[in-house]
Amino acid sequence: MKAHVDATRCQGMGVCAELAPAVFLLDDWGFASTADGGAIPAEHEPAVRDAAARCPEKAILLVE
Ligand code: F3S
User: Fold this and answer.
1) 2: alpha, beta or left, given left = phi > 0 and alpha = psi -120 to 50?
2) DSSP for residue 35
3) 48 lines ligand 1 (CB under 6 A)
4) I need a labelling partner for 29 at 20 to 30 A (CA). Which of 8, 10, 35, 42 fits?
5) Quick check: 36 pLDDT over 90?
6) How far is the CA of 10 from the centre of ligand 1 (A)?
7) pLDDT band of 55, cuts 50, 70, 90
8) Is residue 5 within 6 Å of ligand 1 at its C-beta?
9) What is the pLDDT of residue 44?
10) Ligand 1 pocket, 40 CB below 6 A?
């Protein structure tokens, strides 16, 4: 699975980094991006799915 943060939607809510800090990195303004090109290790998939579901802006896109 891969995850991508749509920069046009992200408003820096930070929920993603709280739920999956190994995957989502926040810049100095709180906007998210994904580490390692968005490739998600299997052990982080549940947290990333949770983050995608709970991002208030629906900015996290998942590709299976
Ligand atoms: Fe942005 Fe959503 Fe995370 S708004 S900082 S992708 S929780």
Assistant:
1) beta
2) G
3) no
4) 42
5) no
6) 5
7) very high
8) yes
9) 97
10) no
Which tokens in the block code for residue 24? Answer: 């989502």
- In the block, tokens 């709970």 appear at 54
d(CA 8, CA 19): 21
In the block, tokens 């100095």 appear at 28
29-41 in b/e burial notation, b at 16+ Cβ within 10 A? eebbebeeebebe
For 2, the token pair is 């891969």
Per the structure block, which two tokens stand in for 56?
């208030």
Structure tokens at 43: 């052990």
Is the beta carbon of 60 within 6 A of some atom in ligand 1?
yes
